Amino acid sequence: QREEKQLEASLDALLSQVADLKNSLGSFIYKLENEYDRLTWPSVLDSFALLSGQLNTLNKVLKHEKTPLFRNQVIIPLVLSPDRDEDLMRQTEGRVPVFSHEVVPDHLRTKPDPEVEEQEKQLTTDAARIGADAAQKQIQSLNKMCSNLLEKISKEERESESGGLRPNKQT
């Protein structure tokens, strides 16, 4: 009885956090699509900061000691129907029209797609194949390239600033 109440309270807290995140994400996408000509970099950064804060809050809610472990909860579809379900359409905002044998494996999947899992495995084996010395050399090489690029950019900026201050020579 107590666990059910705790689970319900946790789900309510999660739903409210996810709804806030969804609204913020929707307004940010709207800005990107419709107000891109008036959009400034600081406002984009503000939107990202808001989204990041909301994701961190969601993580804290999930990691809170009073939040039950959702991975221990089992979800079993009680009704599968190939017919269009208006309640489901309304609840998912038109994203899922039916809950049938065809879509259940995708919506209740707990592992990545087999192709993604294979790619991840391949990347892991490639990363493990590279020795620590080789990885350190690659890191140093990349850092050296980045610092050289930054030096060139700052040199160009200095030259353009100083060039703009000097009067133009007559030819």
**CATH class category name of the largest domain:** Mainly Alpha
CATH architecture of the largest domain: Up-down Bundle
Q: What name does CATH use for the topology of the largest domain?
A: Methane Monooxygenase Hydroxylase, Chain G, domain 1
Q: What's the β-strand tally? A: 0
Q: Could you give a short account of the major beta sheet?
A: none
Distance N to C terminus = 91 Å
Element string (H = helix, E = strand):
HHHHHH
Q: What is the number of helices?
A: 6
Measured as a percent range, the helix fraction is 55-70%
Beta fraction:
under 5%
Counted up, domains total 3
Outline the low-pLDDT stretches: none
Overall geometry comes to extended
Indicate the structural class: mainly alpha
CA radius of gyration: 26 Å
Average residue-wise pLDDT: 86
Write a brief caption for the model.
Keywords: Activator, Coiled coil, Nucleus, Transcription, Transcription regulation. The protein folds into 3 domains: 1-72, Methane Monooxygenase Hydroxylase, Chain G, domain 1; 75-110, no CATH class; 114-160.
Structural overview:
The protein is an all-alpha fold and 171 residues long. It has three domains: 1-72, Methane Monooxygenase Hydroxylase, Chain G, domain 1 (Up-down Bundle); 75-110, no CATH class; 114-160. 68% of the residues lie in helices and 0% in strands. It has six helices and no strands. It has helices spanning 2-34, 41-63, 86-91, 104-107, 114-129, 132-165. Helix 1 (2-34) runs antiparallel to helix 2 (41-63).
